[in-house]
Amino acid sequence: MALMTVDQVAEFLGVQAIRVERLARENLLVPADKDSNGKPMFDAEDVKRYKTLAERLGGL
After folding, report:
1. What CATH number does the domain containing 41 carry?
2. Considering its fold, how many domains does the chain have in total?
3. What is the pLDDT of residues 27-46, one digit of tens each?
4. Alpha carbon distance, N-terminus to C-terminus of the chain
5. I need a surface site. Which of 9, 16, 30, 59 has the fewest CB within 10 A?
6. How far apart are CA 33 and CA 16, in angstroms?
7. Using a CB cutoff of 8 Å and minimum separation of 24, what contacts does 5-14 make?
8. What residues does 52 pair with on adjacent strands?
9. Quick one: a GO biological-process term for this protein (predicted)?
10. pTM reported for the whole predicted model
């Protein structure tokens, strides 16, 4: 399982980092772990599935 930081997810999705943090708070994108600073870390496969779903529903 490859983990991605908030900034990496934001870059992959083409959104701002604050939006990724909001998605995590709203449980729309569930963190797999936390880094040493308490920031969420996401499974790369989950992020890819979220992007596919969001595109099907009309975009991010």
Report:
1. 1.10.1660.10
2. 1
3. 999 999 998 898 999 999 99
4. 24
5. 59
6. 20
7. 5/35, 5/39, 5/41, 6/39, 6/40, 6/42, 9/42, 9/47, 12/47, 12/51, 13/47, 13/50, 13/51, 13/54, 13/60, 14/60
8. none
9. regulation of DNA-templated transcription
10. 0.87
